């Protein structure tokens, strides 16, 4: 498992969408390498609208 900030993955527990820190979300203004902690708390899952509280770090 990679616990290095900027290289982790986070999965939405509601729909299964995955945020890859290495890729970021450039279309939403989140550059590649952005750690999960640096994403605004108001951000929502682009697929289902879940909040950050509904995500868990994936075990790779």
How would you characterize the overall build of this protein?
This protein is mainly beta. The chain has one domain (9-57): Rubrerythrin, domain 2 (Single Sheet). Helix content is 0%, strand content 17%. The chain has no helices and three strands. It has strands at 9-12, 18-20, 55-57. The chain has a three-stranded antiparallel beta sheet with strand order 2-1-3, with no helix packed on it. A hairpin with a 5-residue loop joins β1 and β2 (18-20).
**Cα Rg:** 10 Å
Q: Please bin the fraction of helical residues.
A: under 10%
Query: What is the fold named in CATH at topology level?
Result: Rubrerythrin, domain 2
Structure classification: mainly beta
Broad shape: globular
Cofactor: Fe(3+)
Domain Rubredoxin-like: 7-58
Family: Belongs to the rubredoxin family.
Protein name: Rubredoxin
Task: Give the key terms.
Rubrerythrin, domain 2, iron, electron transport
Short description:
This protein is mainly β and 60 residues long.
Topology at a glance:
Blueprint: E1 9-12, E2 18-20, E3 55-57
Antiparallel strand pairs: 1-2, 1-3
Cofactor: Fe(3+)
Domain Rubredoxin-like: 7-58
Protein name: Rubredoxin
